[in-house]
Amino acid sequence: MPELPEVETVARGLRQSLPGRRILGVRLGKTDFIDDPSALELLLPGTTVSRIRRLGKNLLVDLQSGDGEAESLALLIHLGMTGQIAIISPDAPVPKHTHVFLSLDDGREMRYTDVRRFGRMAILSTADQEKELGGLGLEPLDILLDEFRARVGSRNGRIKALLLDQSVMRGIGNIYADESLWRAKIHPRKLGSKLTSEELKRLHRAVQGILREAIRLRGSSISDYVDSGGRKGKYQLRHRVYGRDGKKCSRCGSLIRWATVAGRSSHFCPRCQPAPRERKTAKKSKPRR
DNA sequence: CTTACGGCCTGGGTGC
DNA sequence: TGCACCCAGGCCGTAA
Fold first, then answer.
1. Is A71 annotated in the active site?
2. pLDDT range class, residue A163, cuts 50, 70, 90
3. pLDDT for the residue A284
4. Nearest-CA residue relative to C1' of B10
5. Residue A149 annotated among the catalytic residues of the structure
6. Residue A257 and residue A271: Cα distance in Å, rounded?
7. Phi, psi at residue A194, to the nearest 5°?
8. How many CA atoms lie within 13 A of A229 on its CB side?
9. How far apart are CA A228 and CA A244, in angstroms?
10. Which of A160, A243, A146, A158 is nearest to A200 (CA)?
11. pLDDT at residue A164 above 70?
């Protein structure tokens, strides 16, 4: 599943081949993950890619219009769970579930393949970009310790939910949330406001360290993630808890556990990440009839 | 305002 | 071969 390290890897791949390329044509398959499919068909041809940006899990392909107009557009791509981008020869076999084809002026094409179609594509004006992406939190790789403390330590939500909340920080998903909490020795159910100063510091370091290492290893290929060159990542080999329930914790030997926290599957070591005191929520007695 | 939670989207994998 | 079911991440509506 593409989270920050995977999207960053894709972005770096696209930066190798897209800037300077002119888009010649657009062909679409299923379009229910595209905000306005006809806008893509209408506006993309004739534009030139100027740069590739990543904001959290979002990719932005900046476009210059062919006629030199100042109006700048960007193609937003969110890979969802199963989105893949390929820059490839049009003669290459087309994988199933490929729904967007952009022909490029170097003879290749950019393809978007998405089994689940949980991804998203949209053409955004500068104003749209602010509206759509303005609510995102800070980049976890850039956030300073003090900012991290302020944003996370003040909140009463479960730390797992806070790490996943894109308006707190952008780009962390289930894998890197679980891995970061394990490294920082914090239970996913603990409340942000209950984290000690030391825990906040450890978590800040853990998040950044893990994201950096994951980018270095080109992300985690869990289900079907590949980068824009079709290569798998290697960080899944370093996972300590994600998908390892029932296996031994590499730090203490206890068995990794699985539980639902904040509505998401969570993996953690019950010894290294001690459970917080349960909040006293009156156990709802079953309504009897 | 904040937080919690259920439901929805889709289809591959699994188990019977 | 079929078929029901689960699950993934993000988001949204609703409730407290």
1. no
2. very high
3. 39
4. A116
5. no
6. 10
7. -95, 0
8. 12
9. 28
10. A146
11. yes
